[in-house]
Design goal:
GO molecular function, one term: cysteine-type endopeptidase activity
Helix content: 40-55%
Shape: globular
GO biological process, one term: proteolysis
Largest sheet: 6 strands, mixed
InterPro entries: Caspase-like_dom_sf, Caspase-related_regulators, Pept_C14_caspase, Pept_C14_p20, Sel1-like, TPR-like_helical_dom_sf
Number of strands: 9
Order of helices and strands: HHEHEHEEEHEHEEHHEHHHHHHHHHHHHH
Protein name: SEL1-like repeat protein
Structural class: alpha/beta
CATH class of one domain: Alpha Beta
Strand order of the largest sheet: 2-1-3-7-8-9
């Protein structure tokens, strides 16, 4: 389950009975995973933002407000405790280098946000952002001289909690004839739609200043209506982030007399997040407590959720369901939670499939039905929801819910979850590789997955590697030191000995500066 190493099932006793030398590391972790969890992360939340505004162009018409809009958003984000990288009129080479550095830094950020104001066009079903020195003179030249949206998505993708890309780039098409406007593709159902759909469980949101085929207005003042609404709304205290973008949309519609309608694409996770106000403490809670925190929403925000849920919004359905699964709340109503989650399942949401499966497994709000639970877990896993895949790995490795032990299938599930950057799965998979039971993988691979698990910000991984490094063989430990050295986190000997210098390197890779 999310929030602890390995699922929160009653595995401790069984794990000890099942332990053999070949799975010693895994069994140790099963026991470790039963420990109580702190409610608040001891490390401070890290927010990172890249703001780019382009107004001066080599071959296409200049823009008036983009740099002003970038400055406004950069200042807004600074007040919200973002470390902001603020750049204007970037050339292609500098833009690409900046994205590469930002992507590396974002791995240890809780939140990664990119805001771009400037020309952007769709070519062949893909979206491109045009740098200041683009030599393109037609749409056919754009791909070779611009930044693709996929590059922007990649730059934020590994942030730990929340990924946001904001494109204020729906202005007049610089390559169009007459009064044509830029085309920004939004619907993944359309052939050659361009956007690779962000993974829902990863919490990625792409926000556009205007919907497909529409113009984003510059406005009568120094800043565009979208930039003003974005700045004003993000600063509102105790406003949940998903509802914030809904309010931004409404504000822009009002300011432009319904001419311009911002659009969001992708999906945030089912856990609430707050950029400002006292509710920010929610962001550092463990997964279960985070979901319970939906109950803290102001009354007007809950009403907004209800309105969205009636329209089939899956995140609103999940938020309302989690409110009704909080036993400390007057609104506790597991039967209604089941109905809400089922509605989200009917909309194809994999997180809802997983959560509803857990309710069927335990008989909460519904008659216990293990067969139904397993069916939902498999549906969720088929949609690449990492928690479900990791759970199925445990069920096959450990046995449970009528699932026979099958180490080969377990390894396959752990491998898939690890490739989706599930931290516990990466650690599990590394342990199995280290034990020599994964064909085609060696100790260098084990170290690679341990390094990736560290970078996700899982404290238990950091603690285990720091305090119990001999859980892994010396070759794996040496390979991990080499990886830390390659990334400039460690300067000592590659000897497999995890002394103070190596431990410092582990902490630096985790994201703790000393």
């Amino acid at each position: 389950m999310s929030g602890s190493l390995f699922p929160g099932r009653a595995l401790q006793k069984a794990a000890r009975e099942f332990c053999t030398n070949s799975v010693l590391v895994l069994c140790f972790l099963l026991s470790f995973g039963q420990a109580s969890l702190a409610s608040v992360d001891e490390f401070p939340e890290k927010r990172l933002a890249l703001v780019v505004g382009v107004s001066d162009y080599l071959n296409v018409p200049d823009l008036e407000n983009t740099v002003h809009d970038g400055a406004l958003i950069a200042e807004t984000l600074k007040t919200l405790n973002f470390d902001v990288i603020e750049k204007y009129n970037l050339g292609l080479r500098e833009f690409k280098a900046l994205l590469a550095q930002f992507e590396f830094e974002a791995e240890t950020a809780d939140v990664a946000l990119v805001y771009f104001a400037g020309h952007g066009v769709e070519v062949g079903g893909q979206n491109f952002l045009i740098p200041t020195d683009s030599t393109a003179t037609s749409r056919g030249d754009v791909a070779q001289t611009s930044i693709s949206l996929n590059e922007i998505l990649s730059a934020v993708d590994k942030a730990r909690q929340l990924r946001i890309v904001i494109l204020d780039s729906c202005r007049n098409d610089p390559f169009a004839q007459a009064n044509d406007v830029e085309i920004v593709t939004l619907k993944q159902s359309v052939p050659l739609s361009g956007l690779a759909p962000p993974s829902p469980e990863r919490g990625t949101l792409v926000a556009y200043a205007a919907k497909a085929g529409a113009v984003a207005l510059d406005g009568a003042g120094k800043n565009s209506p979208f930039a003003v609404a974005l700045s004003d709304t993000l600063k509102k205290k105790d406003l949940e982030i998903g509802l914030a973008f809904r309010q931004i949309r409404d504000s822009v519609l009002i300011a432009t007399n319904n001419y311009q309608e911002p659009h969001t694409y992708g999906s945030l996770s089912g856990e609430p997040y707050f950029l400002a106000g006292q509710r920010q403490t929610v962001n550092t809670l463990e997964a279960k407590e985070r979901k319970n925190a939906w109950s803290l929403l102001e009354v007007d925000q809950e009403k907004q959720l209800q309105t969205l849920a009636q329209r089939g919004d899956v995140r609103a359905l999940k938020g309302l369901a989690y409110m009704r699964l909080n036993p400390d709340e007057e609104r506790y109503d597991p039967e209604q939670a089941v109905e809400l989650l089922q509605d989200a399942v009917d909309e194809g949401d994999p997180e809802a499939m997983f959560e509803l499966g857990r309710l069927y497994e335990k008989g909460i709000g519904v008659e216990q039905d293990v067969k139904k639970a397993l069916e939902l877990f498999h549906r969720s896993a088929d949609e690449k929801f990492a928690d479900a895949i990791n759970d199925l790995g445990f069920l096959h490795f450990q046995g449970g819910l009528g699932v026979p032990r099958d180490q080969k299938k377990a390894i396959d599930y752990f491998s898939k979850a690890a490739e989706l950057r599930h931290p516990e799965a990466m650690f599990n998979y590394a342990a199995l590789i280290d034990d020599g039971v994964v064909e085609g993988r060696d100790q260098k691979d084990a170290a690679e997955f341990l390094y990736r698990a560290l970078r996700t910000g899982n404290e238990q991984v950091l603690d285990l590697l720091s305090e119990n490094p001999r859980m892994f063989k010396q070759g794996t430990r040496r390979s991990l030191q080499a990886k830390l050295s390659e990334k400039e986190f460690y300067e000592g000997e590659i000897d497999g000995q995890f002394g103070p210098q190596t431990k410092r390197g582990l902490r630096r890779a985790y994201g703790i500066s000393e």
